[in-house]
């Protein structure tokens, strides 16, 4: 498995404290924070990411599930996706959608509390 410090990461979550916790656990990660669906779409149209973290509830009508649908529709290339939402139903729905569409996805509600090495080690490296 690649060293996760060389992975380009997109972290979609409207909660600044989760982004801060993620950065604390992953200080050397090449990671970008998107606080909304619209920010994430703008970033994904300009960049390729190896790992995408998805929160479900983003404080607007456009949710993490909306972004997951976008990823499926646009065939967004990504090695790993982590659904980390505290919304259990939303997290499971995103995980199911992405997994059913061929993404290597992990359902991990507190993923921001772990290093990317810990998270990625739980995934199937065959994607």
Question: How would you summarize what this structure contains?
Answer:
Helices cover 39% and strands 17% of the residues.
Model description:
With 127 residues, this protein is of the alpha/beta class. It is built from 5 helices and 5 strands; from the N terminus they run βαβαβαβαβα. It has a 5-stranded parallel β-sheet, covered by helices on one side. Helix content is 39%, strand content 17%. The model has no long low-confidence stretch (mean pLDDT 91).
Record the SSE blueprint.
Layout: E1 8-12, H1 16-25, E2 30-34, H2 37-46, E3 51-54, H3 64-74, E4 80-83, H4 88-100, E5 105-107, H5 116-120
Spatial separation of the terminal alpha carbons:
11 Å
Largest sheet: 5 strands, parallel
What would you call the structural class? alpha/beta
Helical content, roughly?
Answer: 25-40%
Please state how the strands of the largest beta sheet are arranged side by side: 2-1-3-4-5
Series of secondary-structure elements, N-terminal to C-terminal? EHEHEHEHEH
Strand content: 15-25%
Mean pLDDT: 91
Q: What low-confidence regions span 5 or more consecutive residues with pLDDT below 50?
A: none
State the shape.
Answer: globular
How would you classify the quaternary structure?
single chain
Number of strands: 5
Count of helix runs: 5
Radius of gyration (Å): 13 Å
Summary keywords:
single chain, 127 residues, alpha/beta, five-stranded parallel β-sheet, 5 strands, globular
